[in-house]
Amino acid sequence: MTRHFKLTIAYDGTNYGGWQLQPNVVTVQGLLETALRQIAGKRVVVHGSGRTDAGVHARAQVANISLITSHRPQVLRAALNANLPQDIRVVRVQEVDARFHARFSAKGKEYRYQVDCGAVADPFLLAYAWHHPKPLDIAAMRRSARLLRGRHDFSALSANPMRPVESPVRTISKLSVTKRGNLLTIAVAADGFLYKMVRSIVGALVKVGEGKLTLEDLRKLMGAKKRAALIETAPAKGLFLWKVTY
After folding, report:
1. In angstroms, how far is CA 244 from the centroid of its own chain?
2. Total structural domains within the chain
């Protein structure tokens, strides 16, 4: 009998060309499908909640699979991890209804982005944070974050999509800027995200923090609904897919 499973996966994206299966590129989805082939003896398609780009990490990516197996979820998890590199871990396996789909059943996602604000880069954060030693006005960044919360057209804070989207309108329910020691964390939760939207939001907020972009400038850019050269896309390595909600 075919059974259906929800996988929660954590991975360090440093060594991979992103989540999505691609020819001649090592990806997280590709390695999961290879591991499942070892277990099932045939190809098992892995459906992810969404794509993460090359170098982006995940604390809790979600995927769903269907396969014929008698294994309990815990045994399946152990078998998958035995066939995966150590920087990809299946954290949880749950049996679910056939109607569950990691992408289409999702209600929203949360991403977190880390900025190392130390004068000297922390060697233990090199792969997990954008080193930005220049002073940042955190209060100004928080004021700009408030502007971006809610339902807006985010065309100005995204890149040309790999696939067309029906609408560039998204609703941000959370956008916080917190700093502990030298580590600045920007957390964004929304009902969906455009291509490179989070990294563009981070780039814009950092420009505000540097004093190179004002709140009014950002308001005008959003109103123009068009990407401007002034908006920088933050490096991939600071970004984490933190949580998917269902």
Report:
1. 10
2. 2
Question: Which residues partner with 93 through β-bridges?
Answer: 7
Say how many residues make up the chain.
Answer: 246
Residue 39 within a domain: yes
Given 12, 53, 116, 137, the catalytic residue: 53
> Which CATH number goes with the domain that contains 16?
3.30.70.580
Alpha carbon distance 61, 51 (integer Å): 9
pLDDT in tens, 166-207: 889 999 999 999 999 999 999 999 999 999 999 999 999 999
| Token pair for 38 | 């070892």
pTM here is 0.93
Cα(122)–Cα(129) distance, rounded to whole angstroms? 9
- Give the CB-side neighbour count of residue 34, counting CA atoms within 13 A: 12
Buried b (16+ CB within 10 A) or exposed e, 147-184: ebbeebbbbbbbeeeeeeeeebebebeebebeeeebbb
Catalytic, 137? Answer: no
Q: Tally the C-alpha atoms within 13 A of residue 25's C-alpha that lie toward its C-beta.
A: 16
Domain that holds residue 6: 2-95
Q: What pLDDT score was predicted for residue 161? A: 61
Q: How far apart are CA 126 and CA 10, in angstroms?
A: 18
